[in-house]
Write a structure and sequence with these properties.
The complex is a heterodimer of chains A (114) and B (96). Chain A is an alpha+beta fold and 114 residues long. Chain A has 3 helices and 7 strands. In chain A, 34% of the residues lie in helices and 29% in strands. In chain A, strands 3-4-7 form a 3-stranded antiparallel sheet. A two-stranded antiparallel ribbon of chain A has the order 5-6. The longest helix of chain A has 20 residues. Chain B has 2 domains: 41 residues; 55 residues, HU Protein, Chain A (Irregular), CATH 4.10.520. The longest helix of chain B is centred in the N-terminal third of the chain and has 20 residues. Chain B is elongated and about 55 Å long. Classes of the chains: A alpha+beta (114), B alpha+beta (96). At the A-B interface, strand 1, strand 2, helix 1, helix 2 and strand 3 of A face helix 1, helix 2, strand 1, strand 2 and strand 5 of B. Chain B: Belongs to the bacterial histone-like protein family. Chain B: InterPro entries: Hist_DNA-bd, Histone-like_DNA-bd_CS, IHF-like_DNA-bd_dom_sf, IHF_beta.
Chain lengths: 114, 96
């Protein structure tokens, strides 16, 4: 069994990303906000249509279909069916994994990206 | 959809912007998310989802080819939790 711990210091939100676009590209803050929203909306629209979205150097978002399975209400112990559903899976690219572990990302592990 | 297809879609919505600007905008967004995560920050985009970092304990793994045991050191992995709105959109047309 694997122990999972969350580490989190600050929460970055849309405002931070808008500020980055504003500084890097020189659009107005308002237009930067519109662009960020359009990026997210375009990605969501593709996912909604069941399409995968692959951002090289970052990762791949894909939609996976889950079949029906039996669940349990943890409070009452009662069995309830969990209906078939679609879930979104994000697979980080090797580059992003490396960045998070402060590695260079050009060597080592053999298993492939995406 | 790939990053270049995303860029084309954005070009169509913003014909007054240059390709190099759209390119820079898209790269800025994903690079900002990556570097925020690299600084151990969580990135939360309401309606879309949240990126965070999970720590994986060191473990003894196996080289799948040779069967040889190898120590896999402690590492961090990026994790994405789908936002409620996006989850609902993906499941549109199904019963709740």
């Amino acid at each position: 069994m694997q122990h999972v711990t969350f580490i989190s210091m600050e929460t970055v939100t849309r405002a931070t990303l808008v500020e980055q676009i504003y500084q890097q590209v020189g659009l107005s803050r308002k237009e930067s906000a519109v662009l960020l929203e359009d990026i997210l909306e375009t990605v969501m629209l593709a996912l909604e249509q069941g399409e995968s979205v692959k951002i090289s150097g970052f990762g791949t978002f894909s939609v996976r279909q889950k079949g029906q399975r039996c669940g349990r209400n943890p409070k009452t112990g009662e069995e309830v069916p969990i209906l078939p559903r679609s879930v979104l899976v994000f697979r980080p690219s090797q580059l992003l994994r490396a960045a998070i572990n402060h590695e260079t990302g050009d060597g080592g592990e053999a298993y492939g990206d995406e | 959809m790939t990053k270049s297809e995303l860029i084309v879609a954005l070009m169509q919505k913003h014909p007054h912007l240059q390709l190099k600007d759209i390119n820079l905008i898209v790269n800025t967004v994903f690079e900002s998310i990556s570097s925020s995560l690299a600084e151990n920050n969580r990135v939360e985009l309401r309606g879309f989802g949240a990126f965070s970092i999970k720590a994986r304990d060191p473990r003894v793994g196996r080289n799948p080819k040779t069967g040889e045991q190898v120590l896999v050191s402690k590492k961090h992995i990026p994790f994405f939790k789908t936002g409620k709105d996006l989850h609902a959109r993906i499941n549109k047309g199904r019963k709740a």
